[in-house]
Amino acid sequence: MSGVLDQLLLDDIAKFCPQQFLNYHKCMSDPNVKDVTECIPFQGELAKCIKSDVPSFQKIQDKCADVMKDYETCIRSKGKTSECIDQLNSLRNCAQRVVQK
């Protein structure tokens, strides 16, 4: 189920943010990049585009705001994503419902 969600989001990201997606992917896969922090500017550009231009992500942000906030709060308080699996699953379930409509 989450694979379908991931694919839907990736397809939308590639469609609505093609240049930012490509720039970030190229940076991350470049063997000459010794430190992934070199890709942070590309990651920031991609994140900005996703938030402003990807309709499926905007719907998820709108409809799943409370669940997303719970997940972010958990990560901040516990410091590890591995300790926030329940919140992540809730977020994925909410996002899945949103993109299936």
Automatic annotation (TrEMBL):
It comes from the Eukaryota. Gene3D superfamilies: 1.10.287.2900. GO terms for biological process: cellular respiration. Residues 10-54 form the IMS import disulfide relay-system CHCH-CHCH-like Cx9C domain. InterPro entries: CHCH_domain-containing_protein, CX9C. GO terms for cellular component: mitochondrial intermembrane space. Pfam families: CX9C. This is IMS import disulfide relay-system CHCH-CHCH-like Cx9C domain-containing protein. The lineage of its organism: Eukaryota, Fungi, Dikarya, Ascomycota, Saccharomycotina.
